[in-house]
């Protein structure tokens, strides 16, 4: 038998399309894996985290709100959102809308904002990533999607699903893209040198501020739900939290846009801070409430992950440890103590405490980055002369103040934009369910329930809402 020569795909025809000279397969593989990690944080991570943390009657509705957001962001992102966030400048805080799904665009080499205007001249800010635009668009989509999903955590247990379906594309368009372009896409905060390594401001502070604002306009849950809201499945919630934690490896590790030294530092710092924060939060629970709380451990894990995000690849290991101690302490205090004293927190019903876990922790992380960003690591992220945290002297104090100004802009924009969006929606669609629907929960919202009747392997044949889906289906069959 004659020998058969197998020609590797990379050396067959159309090689310049499949494997162009600029493509780094290692970087491309890492970036796609990172994007998948971030995507899995949302679906299934947040979907099952929300499903487990809420009262039984809201398990399906909470999971569906997250699931819908994950799907709804994608067409908006391709049709206009990506270029509004990372395209050519329209105004200092917004990019020009445009379609990013054409083949020519997707197969070309990815690019990022390449210059900063400093002292009258333009300075290169980042090397071009060595992979195609398709990879970059998917990576950034995962961030956009999870931001809206995090926001949903403040609204669980009462928001009309129809209002939510209208809210997601509007908020992505009018709020998320502004923060993304301003800080990451070449906008005025980018030019000013704001440090947000992986979304402490763009993702977490934005979702926390917008979620708290939206909770105000939508209104609170039923009083009985506010007073008694036990999680229906803590083991399911732990599974979702675990996916969220491990997925953060890609969330922060993918933001150098290459498989490099800074990526490794970012991953290690992420897990140092998360673990420390979880342990510190648990210790505070034991000290003040005499028992360690599983929900508290999840909250501490999240605050640690959020806090390290703006500085993951910019700070040293000892700083990540200190940030974990502070992120397990300050958000714990605002959630467990301060929120019970201030009237505002009694008026605004933030279901899962997104304000504390994301807005407070995100602001804290951004401020601490302004203190502890190491000059050598900062130079890998910002090509800005003498870029450093205040701890290292020089212009570090200025950087710290810039971080506070950047946080203020993100908070202000999200409060205003979210309010306008919801006031517009409520002209056409009620923002919350009726009291009758709130009494029933999932069956009223979807005609479905999360769990079968215990021990029978089937759902209840009738519900508080009246006719069950089972009965409706039987009626339809009989009519047919």
TrEMBL record:
Localization terms from the record: Cell membrane
Pfam families listed in its UniProt record: Ammonium_transp
Statement: the UniProt record of this protein carries the keyword Transferase: no
Biased composition (Basic and acidic residues): 457-480
Membrane topology: Multi-pass membrane protein
Keywords annotated in UniProt: Ammonia transport, Membrane, Transmembrane, Transmembrane helix, Transport
Domain Ammonium transporter AmtB-like: 29-451
GO cellular component terms attached to this protein's record: plasma membrane
GO molecular function terms attached to this record: ammonium channel activity
Transmembrane intervals: 29-51, 58-80, 137-156, 168-195, 201-219, 231-248, 268-287, 294-312, 318-338, 359-384, 404-429
Predominant place of localization: membrane
Region listing for Disordered, in residue ranges: 452-480
Gene3D superfamilies: Ammonium transporter AmtB like domains
Family: Belongs to the ammonia transporter channel (TC 1.A.11.2) family.
PANTHER family: AMMONIUM TRANSPORTER MEP2, TRANSPORTER 2, PUTATIVE-RELATED
NCBIfam families tied to this protein: amt
Name of the featured protein: Ammonium transporter
Gene source species: Dillenia turbinata
